[in-house]
Design the sequence.
C-alpha cells in the first residue's frame, strides 16, 4: 500500500477509534464537551439564519420583557432580543478567540521548537523576551496595548497574541529540550536530514499535543479576557454585540431584568465547561488509546 | 582482502571528568579525561569489525564520532579517501549517506507518529535514492531486504515488537544506500532468540549487499558470531585488534584476557544427543 | 522440606473485554541453601512470578496460588505479617540498580534506614552495621562510600549496595531479578561470585531470574524454563543444558551466541517469529506456532509437567532428547 494511501487509512483508524470511544460513552468528558461546543459553534455559524430578530433591532415597546415564547432570553432595555444578540455575540467571540489563541500557539510553538533545538544565543535572546512578557501581569499588558491601539476587538486581539505566545514558547521549548535527546531525533542527524526537517517533520508532531491540550485552557481564559474587556467597554464597541458587552449592558437591571446579564453569563460559563471537558477528554483518551 | 573503505587515525575525544569520590571528599577539582584516546583502525569493504568493551570503554562515543553525532577533538576519519571531519553541508550529507547507524533502543529510535512505510520512504527521498519516486515498490524492496512483510508499511512502531522495530531501523538505514553500517549495540536490548535472527540478518546483508559493518557490542559471544575481526577497547584505547578467532583464542593483552575469563562459560551441550518423537 | 513451594500460580490482569492471564499455573520449589534459576524471555512471566513470592504485584493484578514459605501460607498473611515476611525472610534485588535508590539520599543512609526500620537498631548501631555490610559486599573504603550519593557510584557498586540491603536482615531466600543484565561482563562475573559467597556464608537459598542462560548455567543448580506464562521444563542445570527435553529449551540453547563461533560463523537457526504477548496465547502449548516439531495435537496439551528423569520434568509430551549412546529413552 503506498504511503500516500496509507495515511488516510491510518487517520481513518484513529478517528474510528476516537468515535468508538465517544459512542461507548467511555470518554464522557470528550463526548459531553464536544456536544456543548459543537452546538455553540453551529448556533453561532448559523446565527444569520436562525436568529429570530436582528440583533440591533430596537423596539422600545417590548423592552425589558422576561424570557417568553417570543423572546427566548427576553429583551434588553431598548427592546433588542437578547437571544439574537447572544447568537451574534457568540459568533464574534468564538471567531476572535479561536484566531487569537491559535495564532499565539502557532507563533509560540514555532519559536519554542526552533529555539529549543538550536539553543545558543538565539535561545537566550528569545527566552529573555518571553520571560519579560510572562513576568508582566497579563491583563495590564493587554490593557496597555489597547490603550495604544485604541478600544475595539482589534486591540484586544493584538494584546492577547503579544502575551499569549510566550507560554506556548516555554512549553514547547522544554519539551524540545527533552525530545532532542531521544534516539529517533538523533537518528535524523545520522540519516542526514536537515535541521528543518528534524524540527518540523519529526520533533514538532510529537510535541504539539501538550500545547494543544494547554490551548483548551487558554481558549477559556482568552474568552474571559475578551468578554471582560468588552464588559469594561474596551472590547467590542456598541452597537455590536458580544457576550461581555451584553453582560455589561444589563448590569443596571440586575435585580429587575436579571436575564440580560445572567443568561449570557451562563452561556459563557457553559463554553468554559465545554472546552475544559474536551481538554480532559483528549488527555484521558491519550492514556487509554495508547499512541494516538 | 578488499580495499579499505573507512580509515580512522588518532581519533580523540575529551570531556570533563565527574569528580571521583576520593576527590569529592578531599575537595580536589576533577580534571578532563579522554573518552577516546588516539584511536586508529581500518574497515574494509564487506568486512564485519567488532568493537567490544565494557561500559566506559568509549566504544559508543567512538562510533558516534564516525558520523559526527559527537564532534571529535582530534584525529582523521576518511571514507574512501575523503575526510569526514572537514566535510560541510552537501559533502557532509553525502558522507552521511554512505555511513548509517542503527541504535540500541528499538523503542525510541523510530518516530512514534510515523508509519513504517513513511519513515523508510522519507529516508530514500531525502537522499534522492533511485526508485524512491515509486513509494510502494521502494518500501517493499527494503522491507523485503530485512525479511519483513510488505503489509508492515502501514503499521506504527507501537504495534511492532522490539525485533521488528530494529529491522525497520535497519531498513530505514539501508534505504539511504550506505556502504558502511554502524550497529551501536543494535541487538543488546533484544531477547536471545530474536537476537539470533538479527545477527543472521546482518550476515546476510553483508553477503548480499557487500556492506561493511562496524558492530559495537559489550558481549563477546555476540561479536564472535558475526565479526571477522575484533577491536577490544578499554578506557578509550584499543588494547588489541585482530582476527576474531585469534584474539579470542590467543589473547595478548591483559584486559582482553580478563574480559574473556569473566565471560560466562559456554553452555555444555551434549553433542551426541538425538531427538526422538513419541506418541 | 522445601523452603519455598509455589503451586499453581496464576496471575491475570484486567484487559479490554475480560482478563488476560500472564502467568498460567506455575509450580516452583526451592530448598534451603540451593540456587534455583528461572529463565525465560520477555513476556514469559518470570518477573511477575518471583514478585508473587512476596506479594509485590501491581494493585490491579489478580493472583491465585498456593505459596508456602517455610510451611506457612504466604497468601493468608495479614498486612503486618507480610511486611514482616518481606523484611526478614526474603530479600530481593532488581535489575536496574539506579532506579531502586532515592537519588537525594546518601547510600549509606539508605542501608542504615533498612536496619533501623527492620531490625530496630538505633542510629549509631545502624551506621556501624551498615558499614560492616558495605564491607561484606566488597565495597572498598566503606566509611567514605557511606557518604556517597547513588549517581556517584558505578552500576556494579550500586548493585552491591542493593545486595547489602537485601541481605541485611539475614534472609532465608534471596530473589535476584535480572541482577546482572544492566552490567558489563566483568562486573557481572564479580556480582555473581559475590552472591554465591554471601549465599554460602548465610546459608541462604537464591532464586535467580534471568534471560541469559549463560548466567544461569554458571550460578544455579536447578533451573525452570518459562515460556508464555508456563514452566515448560525444570530440572538440574547440567542435565537440562546437555539434554533439553522441551523443544523451546532446545531451540533457546541453540540460539545462544558462543565464543566458540569465533572464526567460523555458524549461522545459528534461531527461533522464527517472536515470543507471544499475554493476550495472544490460545489453548494448548504456547510454543506450537514457532516449534519445529509442532503437530495438531499441540493445541490440546495441558502443559502439566511430566517427569522424564532425575528431578527433570517437561511439559511437552511428544519430543524427547536422548543421548545417542544411552539405551532407548522415550516416553
Sequence:
Amino acid at each position: 500500500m503506498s504511503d500516500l494511501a496509507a495515511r488516510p487509512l491510518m487517520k481513518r483508524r484513529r478517528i474510528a477509534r476516537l468515535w468508538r470511544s465517544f459512542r461507548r460513552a467511555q470518554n464522557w468528558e470528550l463526548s459531553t464537551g464536544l456536544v456543548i461546543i459543537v452546538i455553540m459553534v453551529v448556533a453561532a455559524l448559523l446565527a444569520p439564519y436562525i436568529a429570530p430578530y436582528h440583533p440591533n433591532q430596537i423596539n422600545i415597546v417590548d423592552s425589558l420583557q422576561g424570557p417568553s415564547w417570543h423572546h427566548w432570553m427576553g429583551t434588553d432595555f431598548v427592546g433588542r432580543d437578547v437571544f439574537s444578540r447572544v447568537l451574534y455575540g457568540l459568533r464574534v467571540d468564538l471567531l476572535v478567540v479561536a484566531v487569537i489563541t491559535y495564532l499565539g500557539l502557532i507563533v509560540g510553538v514555532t519559536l519554542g521548537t526552533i529555539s529549543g533545538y538550536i539553543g545558543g544565543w538565539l535561545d537566550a535572546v528569545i527566552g529573555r523576551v518571553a520571560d519579560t512578557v510572562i513576568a508582566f501581569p497579563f491583563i495590564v499588558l493587554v490593557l496597555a496595548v489597547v490603550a495604544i491601539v485604541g478600544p475595539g476587538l482589534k486591540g484586544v486581539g493584538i494584546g492577547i497574541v503579544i502575551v499569549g505566545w510566550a507560554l506556548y514558547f516555554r512549553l514547547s521549548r522544554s519539551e524540545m529540550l527533552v525530545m532532542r535527546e531521544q534516539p529517533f531525533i538523533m537518528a535524523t542527524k545520522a540519516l542526514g536530514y536537515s535541521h528543518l526537517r528534524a524540527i518540523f517533520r519529526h520533533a514538532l508532531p510529537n510535541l504539539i499535543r501538550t500545547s494543544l491540550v494547554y490551548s483548551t485552557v487558554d481558549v477559556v481564559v482568552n474568552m474571559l479576557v475578551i468578554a471582560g474587556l468588552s464588559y469594561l467597554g474596551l472590547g467590542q464597541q456598541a452597537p455590536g454585540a458580544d457576550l461581555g458587552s451584553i453582560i455589561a449592558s444589563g448590569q443596571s437591571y440586575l435585580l429587575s431584568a436579571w436575564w440580560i446579564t445572567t443568561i449570557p453569563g451562563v452561556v459563557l460559563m457553559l463554553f468554559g465547561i465545554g472546552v475544559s471537558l474536551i481538554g480532559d477528554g483528549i488527555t484521558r483518551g491519550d492514556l487509554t488509546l495508547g499512541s494516538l | 582482502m578488499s580495499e579499505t573503505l573507512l580509515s580512522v587515525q588518532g581519533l580523540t575525544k575529551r570531556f570533563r571528568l565527574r569528580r571521583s569520590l576520593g576527590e569529592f571528599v578531599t575537595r580536589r577539582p576533577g580534571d578532563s579525561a579522554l573518552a577516546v584516546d588516539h584511536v586508529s583502525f581500518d574497515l574494509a569493504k564487506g568486512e564485519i569489525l567488532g568493537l567490544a568493551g565494557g561500559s566506559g570503554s568509549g566504544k559508543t562515543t567512538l562510533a558516534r564520532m564516525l558520523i559526527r553525532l559527537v564532534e571529535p577533538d582530534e584525529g582523521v576519519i576518511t571514507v574512501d579517501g575523503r575526510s569526514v571531519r572537514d566535510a560541510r553541508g552537501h559533502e557532509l550529507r553525502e558522507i552521511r549517506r554512505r555511513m548509517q547507524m542503527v541504535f540500541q533502543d528499538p523503542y525510541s529510535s523510530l518516530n512514534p507518529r510515523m508509519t513504517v512505510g513513511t519513515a523508510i520512504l522519507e529516508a530514500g527521498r531525502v537522499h534522492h535514492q533511485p526508485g524512491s519516486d515509486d513509494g510502494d515498490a521502494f518500501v517493499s524492496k527494503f522491507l523485503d531486504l530485512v525479511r519483513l512483510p510488505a503489509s508492515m508499511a502501514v503499521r506504527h512502531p507501537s504495534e511492532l515488537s522490539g525485533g521488528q522495530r530494529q529491522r525497520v531501523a535497519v531498513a530505514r538505514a539501508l534505504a539511504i544506500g550506505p556502504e558502511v553500517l554502524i550497529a551501536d549495540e543494535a541487538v543488546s536490548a533484544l531477547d536471545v532468540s530474536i537476537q539470533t535472527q538479527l545477527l543472521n540478518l546482518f550476515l546476510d546483508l553483508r553477503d548480499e549487499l557487500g556492506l561493511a559493518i562496524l558492530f559495537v557490542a559489550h558481549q563477546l559471544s555476540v561479536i564472535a558470531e558475526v565479526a571477522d575481526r575484533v577491536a577490544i577497547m578499554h578506557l578509550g584505547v584499543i588494547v588489541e585488534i585482530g582476527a576474531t578467532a585469534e584474539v579470542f583464542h590467543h589473547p595478548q593483552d591483559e584486559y582482553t584476557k580478563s574480559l574473556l575469563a569473566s565471560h560466562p562459560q559456554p553452555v555444555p551441550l551434549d553433542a551426541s544427543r538425538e531427538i526422538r518423537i513419541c506418541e | 522440606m522445601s523452603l519455598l513451594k509455589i503451586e499453581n500460580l496464576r496471575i491475570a490482569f484486567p484487559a479490554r473485554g475480560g482478563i488476560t492471564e500472564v502467568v498460567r499455573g506455575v509450580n516452583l520449589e526451592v530448598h534451603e541453601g540451593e540456587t534455583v534459576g528461572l529463565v525465560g524471555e520477555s513476556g514469559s512471566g518470570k518477573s511477575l512470578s518471583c514478585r508473587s513470592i512476596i506479594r509485590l504485584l501491581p494493585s490491579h493484578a489478580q493472583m491465585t496460588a498456593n505459596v508456602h514459605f517455610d510451611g506457612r501460607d504466604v497468601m493468608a498473611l495479614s498486612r503486618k505479617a507480610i511486611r514482616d515476611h518481606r523484611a526478614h525472610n526474603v530479600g530481593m534485588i532488581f535489575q536496574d540498580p539506579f532506579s531502586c535508590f532515592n537519588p537525594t539520599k546518601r547510600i549509606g543512609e539508605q542501608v542504615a534506614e533498612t536496619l533501623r526500620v527492620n531490625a530496630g537498631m538505633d542510629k549509631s548501631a545502624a551506621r556501624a552495621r551498615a558499614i560492616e555490610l558495605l564491607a561484606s559486599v566488597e565495597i572498598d573504603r566503606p566509611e567514605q562510600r557511606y557518604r556517597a550519593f547513588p549517581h556517584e557510584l558505578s552500576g556494579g557498586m550500586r548493585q552491591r549496595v542493593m545486595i547489602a540491603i537485601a541481605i541485611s536482615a539475614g534472609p532465608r531466600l534471596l530473589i535476584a531479578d535480572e541482577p546482572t543484565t544492566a552490567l558489563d561482563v566483568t562486573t557481572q562475573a564479580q556480582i555473581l561470585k559475590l552472591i554465591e559467597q554471601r549465599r554460602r556464608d548465610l546459608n541462604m537459598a537464591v532464586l535467580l531470574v534471568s534471560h541469559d542462560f549463560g548466567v544461569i548455567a554458571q550460578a544455579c543448580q536447578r533451573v525452570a524454563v518459562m515460556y508464555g506464562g508456563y514452566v515448560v521444563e525444570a530440572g538440574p542445570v547440567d542435565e537440562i543444558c546437555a539434554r533439553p527435553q522441551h523443544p523451546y529449551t532446545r531451540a533457546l540453547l541453540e540460539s545462544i551466541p558462543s565464543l566458540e563461533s569465533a572464526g567460523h560463523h555458524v549461522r545459528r537457526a534461531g527461533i522464527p517469529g517472536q515470543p507471544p504477548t499475554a493476550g495472544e496465547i490460545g489453548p494448548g502449548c504456547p510454543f506450537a506456532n514457532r516449534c519445529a516439531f509442532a503437530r495438531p495435537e499441540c493445541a490440546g496439551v495441558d502443559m502439566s509437567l511430566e517427569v522424564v528423569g532425575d528431578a527433570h520434568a517437561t511439559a511437552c509430551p511428544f519430543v524427547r532428547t536422548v543421548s545417542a549412546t544411552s539405551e532407548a529413552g522415550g516416553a
Observations:
- Chain A has eleven helices and no strands.
- The two ends of chain A are 21 Å apart (CA to CA).
- Residues 1-10, 287-292 of chain A have pLDDT under 50 and may be disordered.
